[in-house]
Amino acid sequence: MIQWFILALAVWVVAFMVNLWLVQRNDFLSRLAMPITLGVALIVLWEGIVLGFDVSPIVLPAPSSIWARFWAETPTLWADFVQTFVGGALSGYIMGCGAGFVVAVLVDRSPFLRAGLLPVGNFIAALPIIGIAPIFVMWFGFGWESKAAVVVAMVFFPMLINTVAGLQSADAMQRDLMRTYAASYPQTLLKLRLPSAAPFIFNGLKICTTLALIGAIVAEFFGSPIVGMGFRISTGAGRLELDMVWATIVVAALAGSAFYGVVALFEKRVTFWHPSQRR
């Protein structure tokens, strides 16, 4: 069976040489093809190692068995996706980021809140989510509400800190210029400070995409109806169904990557004028 490993190693070497050639082309198609080539080579190498060294599926299942389980359990994985991503992560993301943005505008307006709330926020943001999640499950029950609450706790303060930093990024000369125009605070906020803060706000939104999914999955470890990615991972690991665990991880990775990509694409559309978007 060692020939599978040698074959996979040969595929890896070929993929490496192809990537070296693609780097020299440096066009759009080459930049798109490089991560695909590397990803396919890694999967082939993974398959070759499992088959070549006869690795137990309990330790590391082969990508082919994960793929087979993925298609066989598609309805179950879809139900888990809806419960975890739509019910917990997305709802908590909208509520947490929205609240973080509104509070950041209030904090920027009030020196008292800036001096008092931000240190408390940094302290609360440092609390371990593993300790908070079971408390929220006891408070809000086993449904999506407790998962959304955990997500709100995870995304609120990163969004708050990034938005406050962005609102303070407009320099003194720009603010003085707005004062010479006799601009009111709402006018300065809408026409100067929020556009200046846009890259910081989108950085916060992008960071929170991954935090939201992690928070929803972790919360399901501490109590969930018989559906959800966290529930599926914990029960699959307990039953030694590692192919099901990996299939759930693949769904979570795809959902997280797509969510991040949508926010990044929206950022490019909205902040196309900013120097950070220029090549």
| Cα shape | flat
- Report, as a whole number of angstroms, the end-to-end distance: 49 Å
Largest sheet: none
**How many alpha or pi helices?**
11
Order of helices and strands: HHHHHHHHHHH
Helix content: over 70%
Question: What can you tell me about this protein's structure?
Answer:
The radius of gyration is 23 Å and the shape is flat. The chain is mainly alpha-helical and 279 residues long. The longest helix is centred in the N-terminal third of the chain and has 36 residues, at 74-109. It contains 11 helices and no strands. The N and C termini lie far apart (49 Å). Helices cover 82% and strands 0% of the residues. The protein has helices at 2-25, 28-52, 63-72, 74-109, 111-125, 129-140, 144-167, 172-180, 185-220, 229-238, 242-270. The mean pLDDT is 85.
